[in-house]
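Incident log, entry 3
Record: Cyclic nucleotide-binding protein (199 residues)
Problem: checksum mismatch between cached and fresh output.
Input:
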Amino acid sequence: MRIDDISETRNVARELARKYSTMTHDELKVLESILEPMHFSKGQMILKEGEVCKHIYYIEHGLIRQFYFKKGKQITEHLGVDRSIFMCIESLFREEPTSLQVEAIEPTMVYAIPKLRLEQVALHNVNIQILYRKILEESLIISQVHADLVRFETAQDRYKRLCKLSPQVILRAPLVYIASYLQMTPETLSRVRSSTLLE
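Fresh output:
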């Protein structure tokens, strides 16, 4: 690993600690030691259907979409942007092939946290246990927020909520993926965007 990569990995370990759990100097070093930097170019697959998800991923910078196929159509389940976590949670915990796929839709730098290593070090480091729990809590909350969004809110309210929750996704993701994520057609999304701008 290059010197630049080492210092960047250290910075990411600190970011994760700030966001999820306070840590001692030794715990930070342990966390840093298990982080795996990965670069993906635009359009490159991070995880393919049929693979087993073995990592939790932290996006240092970039944009990803998590999607699956239904009746031949791609359905976007998640859009992740800088400083956020993603994973295929069912595949991760059941250790079974995933039906989801993850694609980088911008040049993207992620830090992969191997689940097996994370669990091993969490046994001996209480603050890493807390970080692990809080990452899982955040992932479940994000899934619940999205489920409630598409179940209970109007198209316009869905779009406004996404603008509030993830403004960078609105600015950077292609409209077709935003529409799919919000479970509306691109035409409906265009109308909603236009009416929102007029308000």
